[in-house]
Each structure stands twice: as C-alpha cells, then as structure tokens.
Automatic annotation (TrEMBL):
PROSITE patterns (UniProt xref): ASP_PROTEASE, PEPTIDASE_A1
Official protein name in the record: Peptidase A1 domain-containing protein
Signal peptide: 1-26
Active site: 92, 287
Spans through the membrane: 460-485
Subcellular location, record wording: Membrane
Organism annotation: Pinctada imbricata
Highest taxon, organism lineage: Eukaryota
Pfam families assigned: Asp
Keyword terms: Aspartyl protease, Disulfide bond, Hydrolase, Membrane, Protease, Signal, Transmembrane, Transmembrane helix, Zymogen
GO cellular component: endosome; plasma membrane; trans-Golgi network
MF term (GO), any: aspartic-type endopeptidase activity
SUPFAM superfamilies named among the record's database cross-references: Acid proteases
C-alpha cells in the first residue's frame, strides 16, 4: 500500500519521469496540469498508469522464477548479505519465518557464511521450529535480502540463521532455506519477528499482495523434461499472462495461516453432503509448503470411497496400497488414463449469496513422482496426492498447481483463477474455476470455532477452571495422600490449555 507521507514525493517523481521519458511512456504530463494532480480523479488515473507500467516490467522478470523437484517443494533464488550470497529458499505459505542454513549440514550443498557479510547483524535470541517432519534451531538476526527476480528491491529482513536441523533439509533438493509467507501471528518464537514480506511491502512500496503459479513437472519453458517443477511467484501484483478468465475471491477469515472456509466438497458432480463444519475441522489453510491435499479424516474417508467407486466403475481398480499412498502406480510413458478418475470439487463463497468451485482434475491429485524416481525409464509413475489430516484441511501444492492463486493480503482475500501452466494431457479434463453459483446459507456456519490462545476471556475461563480443578483436588490429594495422582490430573488440564501450539505441515515425507 502507498503511504500518504510519500505521496508528494511520488507525485514529484511522476511529474519528473513523465516529462523526461514522455516518448517511452507515450503519455507526457503537461506541467500546467501539475496543480490539478491533487484532484482526486487525476490522482487515481495517475496511480493506475504508473502502477501498470512499473508492474509490467516486474512481471517479466518474475516469470518462471520458481523451481523444484516433485514432492520437495518450490524454491526461489535470493541474494543475502553484502557481498551477496545466493541461496535457494523454499516458498512456504504455511509458516512465517525466513530461515537459511548458516552452518554446515550434510543435507545442504551450501550455507550462508555470516562472517563474510558486512551487513549481517546478529542477536542473542534463539528460535526453534518444529514441523510434522523434522525441525530446526537457529539464531535470530537481520541482513539485506534481494530477490534475484526483483533485482531493484533490497530490504533489511529478519532472518533465522539455522545452526542445527534434523529431518528438515532434503539431500539433493537444491534449497538451503525457507521463506514463510504467512502472517506474523505464527512467526517463531513470537509475533515480534516481522516476516520478510511485511518488511518488503513496508520498505519498497509494492502492493501488499503476491500470487503463485505452481506448474508441477510440466511448465512452459522445459516441457521436454519432467525432472523438475517450475512456476512463477509474482510479488506485488497479478500477472495477467498467468491466468485465463477472472479470479474468484474468498475471504481470509483469520490472518495467521491463510485460513479460508470451504462450504462444499464433492467428487464428480456429487456433493459429499456432510455438515460443512466437517470440511474445515479444525481449519482450512492454503499451504504451498505441503505437497498433498490433506483432509480431515471423515472427509478423507468419504472422498476416497467415492473416488474408488467411480474409478472402479470406469474399469480401473488400483490396489489399496496405492490409495493409501504407500505404493506408486505406473503406466507406459504418456498412457495414464486420467479420465478413469473423477474430478474433485471444493466450493467457497465469494459474496454472502454467491459461491464458486475449484474443480481439481485427476491431473492434479494423481501426482507424478518425477522421471528421476520412476521405476523404469519407459514408465511414468504416480502417487496419490490426497492424505488424511488431524490438524485440518490443507490445500497443498497438489491443489494449487491447478490455479493461479492470489494472496491479496491488502483486501484479506485469496483468489483462484484458471492457470496457464501446461498440462500433461490436454485431451483429458483439466482443472477449472466454476462460478458464480447462488449460495443460500451462511459460510460463517461452516467455520470451525476454535479456542483462541490470545483470547483473554478464554484464558480467564481456563484459569478459573484450573483453579476450581485445583481447589477440588487439593482436599482429595491431602485426604488420599496420593501426590502423583494429583500432579497428573492438574498437568492434564494445563496441557490441554496449551495445545493450540500448532506444528506446521511442511511437506510430504516421501521424496
Ligand atoms: C531496475 O533499475 C534499472 C535502472 O535503474 C532499470 O533499468 C531496470 O529496468 C529496473 N528493473 C526492474 C525489474 O524494475
Ligand atoms: C546426498 O546425496 C548424494 C548424492 O545424491 C550422496 O552422495 C550423499 O551421500 C548424500 N548425503 C547424505 C548425507 O545422505
Ligand atoms: C567467505 O570468506 C572465506 C574467507 O575469505 C572464503 O574462503 C569463502 O569462500 C567465503 N564464502 C563465501 C560464500 O563467499
Ligand atoms: C457433471 O458435470 C459435467 C461438467 O463438469 C457436466 O458436463 C455433466 O453434465 C454433469 N453431469 C450431471 C449428471 O449433472
């Protein structure tokens, strides 16, 4: 967002650029109209024209800036420190710390050398971050960071310098760090650690918005090879060349993860017809750091049962071990019968009375494991990209790969548009965004209401209950003199109160 203080400076620069480079920009600004620039309408038009030309330039440099290997996440190249040290960092919309390897680790090919950077500033604060798989420990500090795809913007950012990691880095993945793109509320060790993107927006004037086009193993530039995945991350704008049709937007209901609310889920054309709260039990997040689409157990069971039924009806009957994600399914190269599998749809509200659906084609959720990992060179092997979850629905890379996903933080919305990525099989169904449909219900009824750790009222209630528990137990403890019994009872209550402390689902463990 533009800050009001810089408006006069901005207008001056606009005037300067407008008169100096009128040939390039094609529309010069007459000096006599300068005083009129403060008129509201003029100001709006000016912002739009400048904004557009500036962004067009940035879009170009930001296309195809993501790479990765199947199941190992998407990474972006950054320069850290002075002189700059190039690092690849995993893009994770499910966490909020920027962290890089800063000491040797057998699973990374290089690490950031703090002592070589003249702009590095350390601190004595340490940070520990656990994920469902693995964890890392580091030291908080700051340094200058430049995205190589946005070379003109350098900001000082908080960085966690990783000194110890177990099960976090992936040998051969080519990334040495992680960029958490979510809100400060889930930053570690606490929300005082301002995330990189917030610093970028505050110090560069780019819009508070980014968009992700994840293309899986088939993307325009290297359609020949499926060793690698590709995609584009657009900072500060929406690149019109990366989507077809319009984007449909749904509200971010809470700014911590990118939490949104699902109002319906179906397989083929048939809704699962469950209580919509179940779809969001206990939250629904958009997370590029998780490979699969993960669903709450009851929803998962229902979806899988319907997929198996429809697939069987089409004459294909993969073994149970495939559906469970334990075994790959292989076909001769380019012969996977996508049309034997049904599509899955997930619906969201756009306004109070209208909804839209993401139609996730089997090309998304039957995910290729990459030629490197195929069981034989003339086969294509696939894994199921749907898994169950005990921490809520995760719309991971498998879902995001079908769409251009806009994280419009300024308007507190997530947008989905049909992506321009190439598909493996253009003759089979592809993912799409359908809508708008009339929706008569209340999407708020679908949200899972969770006890908020920061909610003072709930804290007070919890302490009062703990107090009552204590008061009830003390006489019993004294009377029965069973000391251990008392501590375990009280310990149990305290633990429950703290259990909102989530761990992140970084990505699938399979490589
Ligand atoms: C960066 O700045 C240089 C010169 O100031 C300019 O030529 C170039 O187009 C800019 N690049 C981007 C991506 O804005
Ligand atoms: C990492 O992978 C390389 C080759 O892929 C291998 O030589 C090396 O031993 C691996 N390192 C560890 C720690 O597994
Ligand atoms: C850091 O400095 C050392 C000593 O000058 C040098 O050997 C090393 O290559 C430097 N590392 C980087 C990443 O620049
Ligand atoms: C199911 O949806 C497809 C498009 O996704 C449509 O062509 C078809 O007619 C629908 N079938 C039924 C029975 O509604």
């Amino acid at each position: 967002m533009w800050k009001m203080e810089i408006l006069p400076l901005f207008l001056f620069l606009t005037f300067f650029l407008g008169t100096t480079f009128s040939d390039v920009r094609g529309n010069s600004i007459d000096p006599e109209t300068l005083s009129l620039l403060y008129v509201r309408e003029q100001k709006r038009l000016l912002f739009e024209s400048i904004g557009r030309s500036k962004r067009d330039l940035d879009f170009l440099s930001q296309r195809n800036n993501l790479k990765g290997k199947p199941g190992q996440g998407y990474y972006l190249e950054v320069n850290v420190g002075s002189p700059p040290q190039k690092m690849n960092i995993l893009i994770d919309t499910g966490s909020s710390n920027f962290a890089i390897a800063a000491s040797p680790n057998p699973d990374v090919n290089k690490y950031f050398e703090r002592e070589n950077s003249t702009t590095f500033q350390g601190s004595s604060r340490t940070v520990f971050v656990p994920y469902t798989q693995g964890n890392w420990k580091g030291i908080l500090g700051t340094d200058l960071v430049t995205l190589t795809s946005l070379p003109n913007v350098t900001v000082r950012s908080n960085i966690a310098f990783i000194t110890e990691a177990t099960g976090f880095f992936i040998n051969g993945s080519m990334w040495q760090g992680i960029l958490g793109m979510a809100y400060k509320e889930i930053a570690r060790p606490d929300s005082s650690v301002v995330p990189y993107f917030t610093s970028l927006v505050e110090n560069s004037g780019i819009d508070d918005l980014f968009a992700l086009q994840l293309c899986g193993t088939v993307y325009k530039e290297t359609i020949q090879t499926d060793l690698e995945m590709g995609g584009s991350m657009t900072f500060g704008g929406i690149d019109p060349s990366l989507h077809h049709g319009r984007a449909y937007y749904t509200d971010i209901i809470k700014e911590w993860y990118y939490e949104i609310v699902i109002v319906d889920v179906g397989v083929g054309n048939t809704s699962l017809s469950m209580d919509c709260k179940e779809y969001n039990f206990e939250k629904t997040i958009v997370d590029s750091g998780t490979t699969n689409m993960r669903l709450p157990i009851r929803v998962y069971n229902s979806v899988m049962e319907k997929i198996k039924q429809e697939t069987k009806a089409k004459g294909l009957d993969p073994p149970e071990s495939f559906w469970k994600g334990e075994k790959n399914l292989c076909w001769a190269e380019n012969t996977i019968p996508y049309d034997a599998f049904p599509s899955i749809y997930i619906s969201f509200t756009e306004t109070e009375s209208s909804a839209f659906s993401l139609v996730i084609s089997p090309q998304q959720y039957i995910r290729p494991i990459g030629e490197e990992n195929d069981e034989s060179p003339d086969e294509d092997c696939f894994k199921i990209g749907i898994a169950s979850s005990t921490t809520g629905t995760v719309l991971g890379a498998v879902v995001m790969e079908g769409f251009y996903v806009v994280f419009d933080r300024a308007h507190k919305k997530i947008g989905f548009a049909q992506s321009t990525c190439a598909v493996r099989d253009p003759t089979a169904r592809v993912s799409s965004v359908n809508g708008p449909f009339t929706f008569n219900g209340n999407s708020k009824d679908c949200a899972y209401v969770k006890v908020d750790k920061n909610n003072k009222t709930m804290n007070v209630i919890a302490y009062v209950l703990a107090g009552i528990c204590g008061l009830c137990i003390i006489p019993l403890c004294v009377a029965m003199a069973i000391f251990q019994w008392r501590t375990s009872r009280c310990g149990g209550l305290r633990k429950r109160h703290d259990s909102t402390n989530d761990t992140n689902d970084l990505m699938a463990s399979d490589r």
